Each structure stands twice: as structure tokens, then as C-alpha cells.
Amino acid sequence: MKDGRKNAGEYILGFLFFMIFRISSWLCSVPMWLTLILHFTVGLSIWWFIGTLIAWIVAGLIRYLLICFGRWGAAAEDPVKENKNPYSTKE
């Protein structure tokens, strides 16, 4: 793309890649796996697992959106400023 914008398909692929990266981040997904194990061993309600799964996905989505927002702000061009220094003008 000439103007630096991406289409929705590229954002979806980026989000899926980011979620796969989050799956490999075991530290963030430990509560989800613990509630699933407790569901099968102790009989904890499956809603606890679903709640932690949703929280994990929402946290990944927020982090992904913050990264996209940072890239969008970093790609903005600075406006051209007028040179007010009289000694640097070329005549």
C-alpha cells in the first residue's frame, strides 16, 4: 500500500499471530489452565474457565490494540516547520 494503511485482512492475520504468541506465553495463561484442571478434578464450574478464557482474550486484544495504536502514532509525519532563523536562510 502506498499510503501505509493496511486492510482488515492483514489486521486479522496479525491478531491471530499475536494470539498464538500469547498462547506460548504460559505466564499469562496459567489461571485459565488451572481453572480447566480444577473443573475436571474438583468439579469447579466450567464458567470459571470460560471467565478466565475471556479475560485472557480481552487482555490480548487490549495489548494488540495498544501496539497498533503505537504504530499508527509513530507513522505520523511531522508537519514542516517554518525556518525563523535569519542566519540560516540561503540567498
Q: Would you summarize the structure shown here?
A:
The chain is mostly helical and 91 residues long. It is 68% helix and 0% strand.
Topology at a glance:
Blueprint: H1 8-24, H2 26-41, H3 46-74
Contiguous low-pLDDT stretches (5 residues minimum) are none
| Secondary structure tally: strands | 0
Mean pLDDT: 78
> Radius of gyration in whole Å, from Cα?
23 Å
Give the structural class. Answer: mainly alpha
Helix count equals 3
Summarize the biggest pleated sheet: none
Provide the succession of SSEs. HHH
Which bin fits the share of residues in helices?
A: 55-70%
Q: Estimate the strand proportion.
A: under 5%
The rounded distance between the terminal residues' Cα atoms is 39 Å
What form results from the Cα inertia axes? rod-shaped
Task: Give an account of the 3D structure.
There is one protein chain. With 91 residues, this protein is an all-alpha fold. 68% of the residues lie in helices and 0% in strands. The chain is built from three helices and no strands. The chain has helices spanning 8-24, 26-41, 46-74. The longest helix is centred in the middle third of the chain and has 29 residues, at 46-74. The protein is rod-shaped and about 85 Å long. The chain starts with 7 loop residues before the first helix and ends in a 17-residue tail after the last helix. The mean pLDDT is 78.
Fill in the keyword field for this structure.
mainly alpha, 91 residues, 3 helices
